[in-house]
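Handout, section B. The chain below has 484 residues.
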Amino acid sequence: MGETPLVSAAFGRRQTAGLLFGLSPMSLVSFALGMVIVFMLFMSRAGAVGWWGLAPLWLGLIAAAFVPLHGGSLADYAPTLVSWVVRRVSGQWRFRAEVMRPRPAGTMALPGDAAALQFVSAPPPDGSPGPVMVHDPWRQTLTAVVEVEVSGFVLLDPDAKNRRVRGYARLMDALASSSTFAACQVWESVIPDSGDGVQGWWRDHGQPDTVAGSLYAEAITAAGPAASRHRLLIAVTLDKRAARSEIRQQGRGVTGAARVLYGDIAALGSTLADAELRVVGWLAPDALAAFIRGAYDPADVPVAGDARTELASAGPVAVDEHWDFLRHDSGWSAVLWAGEWPASAVGPEFLHKLIFAAGVRRTVSIIQVPISPEKARQALRSERTQYETDRHAKQRAGFLIDDIEDAELGQVRQRARALGAGHADIRFAGLVVVTSTVSLEQLRADVAAVKRRGLGAGVDLVVLYGRQSQAFIAGALPLGRSVF
């Protein structure tokens, strides 16, 4: 009998088709405004002075529609550029904790729009100590975080790998099929370690006199410098708007929402077991505070129960946002976005090269947001219409249709068939936060190393220019913050 084949999957390419001739909406607006100015100059019979005087405006608008910048056009980046300039001028790029100024009770000490986040400690129905929940009053969400452990996946046989993949697929399907589910964040931190703990345990408990023991000791010694500590969390977010009727039945307000989320948590426990994920525990306030402080102060990571793990004051002391990195407390960080995923079929361990790269401190977050069947059908119809309209316009103008556009249209049709077969449609985004406690130069070297590792895994990682502060909160903190 042959070896059991591994489950494989191919990710769809990021959509490149525009509204017309491959131009995005912002590019079309920029081009149209430039042409309107040209038309007005022509109709007004403006002389050379008028044409050349307004040339920077109309030429700039037309060029912005076609000049590439960070995977899009200059016009696509206009909102980001405007927001960046406004923050720089108004001083919002810099955050300093006001230690002597009291904060509203129950709020979290985070910068930017995350300052509105509140923490809730509502006891479960049985009266036992419950996990902390993060309430976002603006987005109307409530999030709870569970820490899980999983044994080595790469060393498993194909049957065991396939079993775990199917279990995780059932987990995602269960979350997506819930009408109250808003988002799921899978968060893993990787912290370089000297390996002293493993070597110390082997010295105390190992059996180096045996043949296997001597080989194992050599392997531990060789792997020591490449050792890393991993923590895996899953943040589950409740959509309060979608769960309005359930919340009313449970008593209204945040308390009612917490009771609804407790029901989802109870159902999630058995699903996690089916995926062979061992639940360490749902995070209490001090544990969540330790993760937040560790993200902002990586040189001095506290542990749960430490005096510094008060959730009301667990935010940063100082943060400076720059165009392509963030300076915070004792570290420098850069947030990268997975712009492209493997287009060819890959196995379930394809991210191994990225997650287990040695010597770089990083956090990998995969944020998944389900789409209701009705909205998914509308979105797919819109995408298909957009592709077909663009193809017809190019054909009439004599342009060729390349293979990439055909492949992207095929992916839209495939998603529509999967949706018709009853499968859930999920939007997902990958964020990688690279952190250094040494210097900005070391951060740039680490970012380059992680990008190379990403290419080896088939993932194209790009720096999120001009959006580092919000992206850091979404990717480095396990708060279930959606990026959509």
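Note. The chain has one domain: 107-476. Compare this with the example in section A.
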